[in-house]
Amino acid sequence: MTGLLAAATSAADKRAAFRAGLASNRLQRLPGAFNPLVAKLIQEIGFEGVYVSGAVVSADLALPDIGLTTLTEVSERGRQVARVTDLPVLIDADTGFGEPMSAARTVSILEDAGIAGCHLEDQVNPKRCGHLDGKAVVPTEEMVRRLRAAVSARRDPNFVICARTDAAGIEGIDAAIDRAKAYATAGADLVFTEALRTVADFERFRAAVAIPLLANMTEYGKSELVPASTLEKIGYNAVIYPVSTLRLAMFAAEAGLREIFEQGTQSGLLDRMQHRSRLYELLRYERYNEFDSVIFDFTLERNQ
Predict the structure, then answer these.
(1) Which of 121, 122, 189, 201 is the catalytic position?
(2) Residue 269 DSSP code
(3) 0.90 exceeded by the pTM?
(4) Of the N and C termini of the chain, which has fewer Cβ atoms inside 10 Å?
(5) What is the pLDDT of residues 212-238, one digit of tens each?
């Protein structure tokens, strides 16, 4: 049953792997998983990690990304995803779901959920999507308190605490760099610089900040879609593709539903669907059948 109902790799080993990956000089690629099955696909294809996006959890609940989701909702989705993959999972913890004490509780809950790391942002609570206008950031000192509370709550030293700054689009890149340095001093292991626009911006940030950096390659946002090879050459340590799988799936689902509505049948869509055999392969269906067979073949010897 090892690795069947749950991942074979322990949470501690996944966290150690994430730490090692960030220190490896190789870019860690973390596509977003909008459900656990997608996380299994991400692992099978060969990526280094899985990301759980707060925007995606919100969208999956048919809510906008404006801080309406709760710690319980987000952590439970993270637990579901982490359970099925041997890859480290990084999760979006928004602003920590409240004041510094709440950020501390968030870290402890996410550790218990088997997550490898989380990022906390310096937006005013409730937050907004990082690539929309109208954001506001808290004073640096307030974010430092948020981070120090999170770091103090960490029990596994390999749990990665990432500090996200949204200041570049509000206060400018120099201010965002100053914040990143303050966040590193406060104990952040990784810095996520939101909504940088060009390769030159990413290069400028990398030259100024000593600790590992994460890039967000979300579609339709403010950032140029920089190839992974370029980010690795610049010296970035991780990249997330937060909403890509949800956008792909929703586009396909909408197109298919419209055709069924108009044509009255899905017969013309079969070549655009995942086949049942492929789904069963991804679910390792045969292994479950083997397990059932072993259980039902068991007989209890009785003393005569």
Answers:
(1) 121
(2) G
(3) yes
(4) C
(5) 999 999 999 889 999 999 999 999 999
- The reply to whether 164 belongs to the active site is yes
Q: What is the DSSP letter of 121?
A: E
- Residues 146 and 96: beta-carbon distance below 8 Å: yes
Burial of 163 (0-12, 13-18, 19+ CB in 10 A): buried
Classified as helix, coil or strand, 268 is helix
119 labelled catalytic:
yes
Our answer to whether residue 92 is catalytic in this structure is: yes
Q: What is the mean pLDDT of residues 12-17?
A: 98
If we measure between CA atoms, which residue out of 228, 188, 26, 169 comes closest to residue 93? 188
3-class DSSP assignment, residue 10: coil
Report the range of poorest mean pLDDT among 9-13, 100-104, 195-199: 195-199
Task: Judge whether residue 303 has pLDDT over 60.
Answer: no
Q: Is 94 a catalytic residue?
A: yes
Please, are residues 162 and 190 in contact by the beta-carbon 8 Å criterion? yes
Catalytic residue among 29, 164, 179, 204: 164
| CA–CA dist 180, 190 (Å, integer) | 9
Among candidate residues 119, 131, 146, 148, the one labeled active-site is 119
Q: Where are the alpha helices (H) located in the chain, listed in sequence order? A: 11-22, 36-45, 54-60, 71-84, 100-112, 140-153, 168-171, 173-185, 199-208, 228-234, 244-263, 276-283, 285-297
Tokens read off for 223: 């950032």
Q: Which position among 194, 201, 204, 241 bears the catalytic label?
A: 194
Q: pLDDT by residue (tens digit) across 258-284?
A: 999 999 999 999 999 999 999 999 999
Out of 79, 118, 122, 129, the active site residue is: 129
